[in-house]
Amino acid sequence: MRVGLYPGTFDPITHGHIDIIRRSATLVDKLVIGVAINRDKGPMFSLEERVAMIEAECASLSTETGTEIIAHPFENLLIDCARDVGAQIIVRGLRAVADFEYEYQMVGMNRAMDSSVETVFLMAEARHQAIASKLVKEIARLGGDISKFVPPAVRDALYTRLGR
Fold first, then answer.
1. Which residues are catalytic?
2. Which of 1, 17, 122, 137 has the most beta carbons within 10 angstroms of its beta carbon?
3. How open is the CA angle 65-70-74, to the nearest 5 degrees?
4. Residue 132 in this model has a pLDDT that exceeds 80
């Protein structure tokens, strides 16, 4: 069984994330969405809320692709999380060249720790390349419309969190 791990903070999950999840699911038999606890980023949504959003948005994708998709919180090293879930592949989404520079370093470090786990990069579709959770939160905070960037339930949760 091929197991893939797609890690991130997902605060909140966006259409860009969902695009990468949909495409990743065709490459593996089981896709684990690794939800990073990452206290340094100070997420807007709690771990439980982020996991629930991912599960809600991925339920239909799992049926559509025939791939088991699960959310898995983690706070350890990414390579250790990959081992914990039995992943042979780490999936990383790229939006721009700046993403690649950071990811390139990460791959080198992960391979030094465990060369049996491969990293696969997927470019976000052109219409999703500019979407970043940080920017979505900023647009929402400043009263903008985020409907193009996140699913309706996520949009509503974000607006509710901001008192809109």
1. 17, 41, 95, 133
2. 17
3. 145
4. yes
